Amino acid sequence: MKKDTDDLLMVKQTLSQFSFRRAFEQKMLYFSDGADMFLDQCVVCYENDPDLLDADVSVLKNVMAQKKNIALISLGCGDASREKMLLDLLPAAGLDYYGIDSSHIMLDRAKETLKNSHRKSELVCLDFGSSELKDWVDKTVLDYDLRIFVFFGNTFANIPQAYMADSLRMVMLPGDILWLDVTFRKGVSSLGDGKLYERYQGWLKSTKMRNFILRPLKMVGLPEKNIDLRLEMKREVSVGALKFIFYLEMKNKTEIEVLGETLTLLPEDIVNILQIRAYAPNKLLQFFEARGFEPFDEESGQCNLKKEKYIIIHRFPL
Ligand SMILES: C[S@@+](CC[C@H](N)C(=O)[O-])C[C@H]1O[C@@H](n2cnc3c(N)ncnc32)[C@H](O)[C@@H]1O
To answer: pTM for the whole thing?
Structure first.
């Protein structure tokens, strides 16, 4: 109950800065019952794609053959069900699991997922976009031979790119691995881009998706009848991404009270809620190479885990 109150307070604090930033923090979508709303619509990707599971197992086996004492750190671990499927196929010794998430309820679900696991596992509530991440890494996982930081489920695609890449570079040690699961653009053509747009436009019509996206705002009393939920597509050239932005546009003048402040939203005022990116793989690699990361050669399994920070980018082509 206390956790719910903390989450609501954090949503209110974000909202109380609306008048300055006019943007909303996406992590709050997963607070309280948002976690279960998300999980209800999720299928673990390995269930539809056993080849991906095999490929992921072999990447980890390859790394385990080279280093004895590894920490797998999942950033935005959700209920950890994907990690459970993956890690169950690998020896428990030599590979410890750390799930990091900012949603208390997600971490409760992850605890349930991992309850019968023999692997050393720890779940941690923190914001990976804050300085808490570096403090935690320095305190908890520096003694490992190698750290693998993973963003599963397109989570990297929701957050500010250059900021997160720079802070990962700061947190990671030479030889550490960054593993990103992102949606790829299938070739870069206006036809392919149009299909992606249609896909996300479908979310605007889905009651489940609307409820999920709008829930934190409803929590603080923004009436749905006063808003339009809209979608905009933009290019983000530095990472080769198409960016889909879900935002609110006010229909009527609306005043809400948040932490003693009155927020006034006028017709056509805009509040950004969620961003999702789909990438051109080569550009995303270049974006990381410019920050001292090296590609990890999965085909040959060859990697010289010594000096550089390695990046594995996995694939969710649409
Ligand atoms: C798209 S879900 C992916 C969940 C899981 N990795 C999967 O593959 O199904 C994003 C997850 O990241 C968490 N998250 C989002 N922003 C975060 C932040 N700034 N710090 C920590 N966790 C965050 C959310 O709570 C949510 O569980």
So the answer is: 0.92
